[in-house]
Amino acid sequence: MRILVTGRDGQVARCLADLSGGSHEIVALGRPDLDLTDPATIAAAVATVRPDIVVNPAAYTAVDKAESEPDAAFAVNAAGAESVALAAAEAGVPIVHISTDYVFAGDKDGAYVETDATGPTGVYGASKLEGETRVLAANPKAVVLRTAWVYSPYGNNFLKTMLRVARDRDVLRVVADQHGTPTYAPDIAAGILAVCERALADPEGGWPGVYHMVAEGETTWAGFAEEIFAASRERGGPGAGVEPITTADYPTPARRPKNSRLDTARFSASFDHRLPSWQSGIARCLEALDG
After folding, report:
1. Is pLDDT at 291 greater than 80 in this prediction?
2. What are the structural domain ranges in the chain?
């Protein structure tokens, strides 16, 4: 199985590349070889790699900056995603597109299911929702995977920020009224492979569509931070106290959803795959960072 992955330097792309080997040949390409704002490079990459399936985790992810750069966000997350889906469709192959919890308003009491009404509260979420719509319209063999609170040993993310700041501060103020599920990017990569395997083994099956794929369990950003520091201290690493605060105490240009919980039952039933607990991902990430 040859998989073309967009966004060579992104967290999910790098974790997918780590899984290359054996029956999985994973080719991750980024700019300038594959630029989501340049459809010609996308078509050329698909023609050169000749993949069995395309995975598109590449995105404009600067949530706050998107509020002042809506054109840039939509160019990548909507038009760019559509270009990838079209190139895959023209090659006759499926696409797995990675989306986000930010497509929801965050005002539901329980976990969101795939059929719940969307309602992004900012430019980033709106651009990702538009990308979902365009991808599904462009390629009849499209799977959209919504995930949330991604972290890994790579790039910039909440876990690495907490560890860095804890080296200089005894107590950190962290938002405690936003609920969701921290999801370890290598687990996301493994889930993507499960989707790819099903799509190629059962090409006429009823798998195209939208799914929620996050780790097991839920917490808040403050709870996430507390678990990071507890696990870090066990390994002799940095830790800090956590002072819970409200979203209003930490204003940002973009409004975050207060509820990012996603129900994964449909994903698990369709692909016979379940991601591990969010707590287990922290321990494995710390081990990877130490290595």
Report:
1. no
2. 2-290
8 A C-beta contact, residue 281 and residue 224: no
CB 17 within 8 A of CB 47: no
Asked: is 2-290 a CATH 3.40.50.720 domain? The reply is yes
- Selecting among 112, 124, 151, 184, the annotated active-site residue is 124
Give catalytic status of residue 124 as yes or no.
yes
Q: pTM for the complete prediction? A: 0.97
Q: What is the mean pLDDT of residues 114-130?
A: 98
* Cβ(36)–Cβ(92) below 8 Å: no
Smallest Cα–Cα separation from 149: which of 207, 212, 201? Answer: 212
Distances (CA, A) of 175 to 116, 241, 253: 25, 13, 15
The pair phi, psi for residue 173, each rounded to 5°, is: -90, 120
Owner of token pair 């609170």? 149
Give the CA radius of gyration of the chain: 19
* Residues near 192 by beta carbon (within 8 Å), at least 6 away in sequence: 12, 16, 55, 96, 98, 145
